[in-house]
Amino acid sequence: MRDFSVPSDxxxxxxxxxxxxxxxxxxxxxxxxxxxxxxxxxxxxxxxxLVFLAPYIWMLSASxxxxxxxxxxxxxxxxxxxxxxxNYGRVLREVPIARYLLNGAIMCGGILFxxxxxxxxxxxxxxxxxxxxxxxxxxxxxxxxxxxxxxxxLPLYVGxxxxxxxxxxxxxxxxxxxxxxxxxxxxxxxxQLPDEIIHAARLDGMREGTIVWRIILPNAxxxxxxxxxxxxxxxxxxxxxxxxxxxxxxxxxxALGVLHFRTEEAGxxxxxxxxxxxxxxxxxxxxxxxxxxRFVEGIATTGLKG
Amino acid sequence: xxxxxRFEGMQVAGLILEDIRKGFGSTPVLKGVxxxxxxGEFVAVLGPSGCGKSTLxxxxxxxxxxxxxxxxxxxxxxxRAHPGARDVAMVFQSYALYPHLTVAENIAVPxxxxxxxxxxxxxxxxxxxxxxxxxxIAADVARIAEPLGLTPLLHRRPGQLSGGQxxxxxxxxxxxxxxxxxxxxxxxxxxxxxxxxxTRREIVEIHRRVGAATLYVTHDQAEALTMADRIAVMQxxxxxxxxxxxxxxxxxxxxxxxxxxGSPRMNLLPAEARDDGMVMLAGRATGLLTRARGPLTxxxxxxxxFPAATGWAVRVAHSEYLGEATLxxxxxxxxxxxxxxxxxxxxxxxxxxxVDFARAVLFGADGRRLGIEAAQHA
Amino acid sequence: xxxxxxxWLLTLPAALAFLLLVLxxxxxxxxxxxxxxxxxxxxxxxxxxxNFRELxxxxxxxxSFRNTVLYVGLVAPASVALGLALALLIESRAPLRGFFxxxxxxxxxxLTVAMASAWQYLLHPTIGPINAALRAIGIAGPNWLSxxxxxxxxxxxxxxxxxxxxxxxxxxxxxxxxxxxxxEAAHVDGARSxxxxxxxxxxxxxxxxxxxVVTISLxxxxxxxxxxxxxxxxxxxxxxxxxxxxxxTEGFTFLRLGYSAAITLVFLAIVLALMWVxxxxxxxxxxxx
Lengths: 306, 378, 289
Hints:
The complex is a heterotrimer of chains A (306), B (378) and C (289). Chain B is built from nine helices and 23 strands.
């Protein structure tokens, strides 16, 4: 800990694509070298890191152990007799994992699609076009940023129930299709695009619709990926809204699936419960490990603006 | 596209601006500007920043709409027409290249928009219905890119190009469709000095090839003087003078033109015309006779002097050697007078020079140019 | 004019969706709070502030409110401090920067419900590794999630674990925005120790980021729901009731929508107040324009 106030860019390791194995291998070799010169810093971070990883480590460990071994509460991580087939087998037999993951993907994909569909044109119009009422619309966007999604939940539930849409994908997707945050984010992003490019496009003969399709959309990618990561992480992990509108298994999201399995089936079978948790956590976690940099940047840029 | 007007004997003016007025909020930016650019003519709009020259250009392009006045291109009133329907091409100060398209695609955009229908432009399938047009467009792009040295860069994106290369892509995109009116908004301001001189020539050559009525906005008098057929000097939203470069330099019609052109600019000294018309400087007769009476301004170009010992002498107080010339700081009638000597003449501090009033110009109290009736040696 | 009609055309879908899915339901929620609306119990009646009077006497709600304040008071400061410490430690030198950033960021992208299950196992009174470790050194560990004296503490620890990595990433973005020259200038000007340079340059320039991270952490903490719903369901004996969970049970279990809406309004008021304080402090203190 010689100097914790000077971040330097020198030697910043490329941290993009790392699998589990590569991550571990990459960690151990430099670890030895680093501890020698950089001892206290590495030591503190390693201890804290172990605490942060503890739930993952023990989750993985318990998912490999037979029930009696778990109940012995031994402090060894590796099981004496492996129970992979027993635990994971039970989960795969009893829990429609693929169904939940697919439901989650449909929900997140549907939400993201509509969010972008609404937000990109609106963000462009608010950033670059002059039209009467623009300031009022932007005022509503700023106002909307203040209201957490939990506030309109009750009336939305009543409305969906009146429409008979409860326990459908529509109930999962529709209420989240409009994101004022996305509109705000894209407006800020398009503001940085030089006006001259849009003027050039008009001179080159493009009409307003063509400009959106040919100039704005292709240039929205950096903001769109950042927002996509933010949106998918938020909705994939959300429990509040699916818990309200979904009752059965048919449309249950991964979060609901784990909850159902925990309360209805698993009981005290921690091995199977941990196996289910591993399987449900894995997809997003792997996506993160493969595109670490994009995730961190996406969350940081959207986080700082939200 | 057939253009009969180019082949007929009587030519319709390329671009006519009539009494263009524009204000932003309560500040007037253009106070009634009229201008006529013939086909094939190169007019530079010269003025300090904030004089309204960029707004004028944006009104021609259709990016801004004037509050009053009329814009006519090839005899057609386009004052309120869409920018894309004016047959105007423009090179922007920042080049405004589409960052997500390659050089070839950037140059092709104006052609794609004009020659292909919406269906033919559609992704994937559109290509099936427009193979022939697309080949034509590719050929045109290649033809434009070649003389500009862009052929090896056609597949790069703007982000991978140097400033000079981007500039040439912007030029290529503007001229590829042979526009009737060609606009350039300070196109050289983002280039370094050496590249600027080379590109000046390139732009003039492109202009000759395209033959469009060209409007070139700049604040750099060297660009205006070297490139333009005529210069329109603007200040404070007004067009002060529209004339060929030599005319602007030698015979400024307005004191503000005189104060802007030349490096260093013309010395402007307060003077007075006696009742008999003799121009007096600090109570001494200059030998210049005018019809005006009362206070006026006497303009002396930096080179209007000769080394001699007789006449109205000024003493060199300080000199600055510039290589191609020497600047001489002197004073005349209590005011500072900056002179510029050719390399051959090495005036050192303390030496005396004689001001050549025969080459002086006069401006009235309203700033307009005054005639000189006679010049006697003082 | 062309431009204005295009502007409206592009904004209209978003505006309609906003009206239908955000503005109208939010106003409806505000209105509901002043009625006795219960799902399936006939037409609602306007009862004015009755719901709010009831809230003030409802021991369950008051407990829930106090628990939320406690949770926010524990989680927000701890996750901000830990996030800042991690960001400074990780950014200070190159070795293993990417690796540690990934480790501490993992909870942000992990399925909360699944990780709550993992925590349940970790904190299990008899078979959980934490109590097993405590037993090994001769301490009888408490019943973390089922004892009313430790349950909020346990939930808060999980909250810190979830939020620190998020704050760390925000702080890292703030740190990279500080010009290196400033720290080098501080070095040249004689700020010898890392601590002095932190006090002189890093901390003041991190001001806007810190204020922002504090606000967002407070708001995220007020929104605690998942871990309570999965691990304790407000128990034991309402010892871990929090605002959103109470709102959820009142509204969607007991179907007392009017009463639930009143709780929602309390929640909204807290969030708005936090944002108001943020902008006030932002205007006054931490801008160096």
